[in-house]
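Lecture 7 notes: from sequence to structure.
We start with the chain below.
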Amino acid sequence: MFEANPDPFLLPTYRISPFRTEDLTRNETLPEDDFAAEYFNNRFGKGNWNYTFNGREAIHLALENYHLQPDDLVTILTTSENFYISSCVTKSIEKFCKWNREIVPETKVILVNHEFGYPHPQMGQLLATGLPIIEDCCTTFFSQDEAGKLGQYGDFSVYSFPKFFPIQMGGLLVSNGKFPVKESQELSGNHTRFIQNVISHFLKQETAILQKRKENWEYGVNQFLKLGFTTRFKTSENIVPSALLLNNKGLIENLNALKIFLNNHGIQNSVFYGEDAFFIPIHQNLTPTDLDYFSFVFSIFMNHNSNADVR
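Predicted structure tokens for the same chain:
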């Protein structure tokens, strides 16, 4: 059984990232392993990539190449075309210049955010503008578009490891040839060695990770379809979602109250602001029972409604 009102000091912890407390010890004790370097050399080409402290640093290092002035514009485009965008992206741009959400004559660079694992559907048209493109692939490490070119359209692509692996830091900056790839200014040698050891360990399990994520996705979607929600994006075999993004369809009147309620039950989540939608974890370290718990917590909230005295 699941407890509807657990002691706040005894909550479970479910993150959007697959990182768990027990991963701390395992990651620290992994042997040195260079498999990740071989993997990235094969995938991106030797000399075309570098580790970064996180996805934000990767965006920063990419933007440094364009000599942007304070009044220049970086135009952010997203898969959904919703206005929602992480402050991690906007704050990185604001260190250089201004940003907006549609291409205008003042646009100097396009930053394409492939959201939640889903590729932007109009990359060919964006490439035809002739504007420099940076692809934010932080949530699309394992995804691919129909042309098989995701991450190869722009001058750069950037990745974030914690979105898909149980690690607390680490990103990747990839250059597609126009500019040399810059080295991280935030990683020490120990950081780099640690990231490589951990990512090597998990890349060797890629097939099993993808299978587990697929199983959890199918199970989780089925559970939430029963509650009346629907998936926001159309999925395919080439898509590996980073989170379970669901249409609310007006079922829950106050999504912000739902957000608080889920957090108070140990489930990291967020509203997909600008739409009647929200997202929750769906990674490989969940079990069907974990997803049953998510459904249970949602059912409590929906049965009591957002105005009830629920914790």
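Points to note: Residues 140 and 193 are 24 Å apart (CA to CA). DSSP finds nine helices and eleven strands in the chain.
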